[in-house]
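Re: the request from the purification team.
They wanted to know what the chain is likely to look like in 3D before they choose a buffer screen. I agreed to run a prediction and write the result into the notebook, where they can find it.
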Amino acid sequence: MSELLTPELLGLILSILFASFSYLYYRNISKDTSYSFARLFLERGALRALTTLNIGFGLYMIARITSFLIVMGFLEEAAIYSIRAPIDLLAGILLIYSIMNLWRITRRR
């Protein structure tokens, strides 16, 4: 199973999911801006979704800093699989979760 689900394939799947939910969220906001923003500020889960989005971006930045440290020679190449890949996976899951929640909040019922 681990041969089928490589980090590259997992990253591709997460990227496609994030891009599709980002498009749906953008479409909701651009279609009816005032309704979407009203739902965003009135819904109880919106603050949790925005907080999760910020945590996901923070983890993504930590993973990029780890990549720079590897390129500069401060960390070994093995750190890609032991440090950066799990952080990227967690950041991707958090970003997808938050964008999915924002899309759910702003869609018209």
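For the purification team: The chain has a mean pLDDT of 90.
Please add any questions underneath this entry.
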